[in-house]
Amino acid sequence: MIDCVEANCILKEYLFLQQTIEDFNKQVIEFKSWSVTFGIAALIAAYTKPVSSAGRVGVAVAGLSAIPFWLTESFWKLSQHLHGERTKDIEKCLSDGCTDLKPLQIYTSWFETLGGFWTGVGHWLGVAFQPNVITPYVFLLATGLVLAWRFPPPASTE
Description:
Layout: H1 4-48, H2 55-64, H3 66-96, H4 106-114, H5 117-128, H6 131-134, H7 137-150
Helix pairs in contact: 1-2, 1-3, 2-7, 3-4, 3-5, 3-7
């Protein structure tokens, strides 16, 4: 049976995890807004005035700028999901009256969920390609690459 001290620790851990998960959501919005702002500003800058013959490369790089933001968000979301797994364990324990849940095991639960390296990579890829994660990065990336390929900025005549 879980004693009062352990139950109090589990409740505090649960509240901490819930707050952390919500804080992750605030950061994700910032990743998306910075990515779109930076990518669109770079695309607009490439078309604002005639550029050198490397204008096509500049537009492609502007589109590719979405990748670091997407990678960062996907790792961030994976962390959020791992916190969610521990939260589910605590909720199940609290609703079923379990007797074997140890408090303060967030780090341990991450590694149990991730398993080995390749299982962890699989979890990360699963998160990275979720529609709510990959949007708007895929659109920015595709726009930059299509513009570079089909509609490059006009080259300078100087």
